Amino acid sequence: QRQKTKIEKTEKAKVSALSTIQKDYLKDLQADRDRELAVNEKRFTEGKIDEIKYLDENLRIKAEFFKKEMAYLKGKNAEERKRIAEANLEQVKLEKETQKKKFEIRSKVLDENYKKEVIETDRRAKLIENSDFYDGSGRLDSEIALDDIRLENAKKYYENILNLAKNSNQDTLEIERKRDEELGNLENTKTDKIKSRLTILIDDLNVQS
């Protein structure tokens, strides 16, 4: 088979490369993108927008750049096809990273609210435990009622965070594992108190008889 000459190899390389005009156009696109990103960064730094809005705007700006880049490059040679493939990959990665960051921000809010609810029910449980107002059965009745509140709060929290994870295309297995473990422990605690309450009731009936 005939070996290609240096001239033929050079011509093939030129065909597979971007032209000077193409490179300049893409540099202009990148400059426009970077200016918009800088404005968005400044607005976020100055507190004019929150982090969710900042991430959404970053995604919009970069997605618009990828769109213009892919529209300009027609895929006529290897270099254009390579750039198009890279742009597609970068856009997918960016969307995934943005969804993950937004999930982390929103889930943190849910976590903090749930922690406040747990602290409040713990405070109320301590008051019941230390109060001289209750007798044995009355104390248990109040604790069981508080356990119902704990369960309701936990169910609501896990329902919200699982919905958020699913809508953000995040893995839910670990959240579901924690949910099942926590709800199971709360149910067991409540069941033990109900058994103790029944024991007291039976003892009271025996005394009366």
Radius of gyration: 31 Å
Q: Tell how many strands the DSSP assignment holds.
A: 0
Low-pLDDT runs: 7-13
| Terminal residue distance | 111 Å
**Morphology call:** elongated
Report the biggest beta sheet as strand number plus sense, adding barrel if it closes. none
Q: What number is the mean pLDDT? A: 90
Encode the helix/strand succession as letters.
Answer: HHHHHH
- Strand percent estimate: under 5%
| Count, helices | 6
Structural class by helix and strand composition? mainly alpha
The portion of residues assigned to helices is over 70%
Topology:
Layout: H1 6-16, H2 20-45, H3 51-72, H4 78-130, H5 136-167, H6 173-208
Structure characterization notes:
With 209 residues, this protein is mainly alpha-helical. The N and C termini lie far apart (111 Å). Residues 7-13 have low confidence and may be disordered. It has helices spanning 6-16, 20-45, 51-72, 78-130, 136-167, 173-208. It is elongated and about 100 Å long. Helix content is 86%, strand content 0%. 4% of the residues are buried.
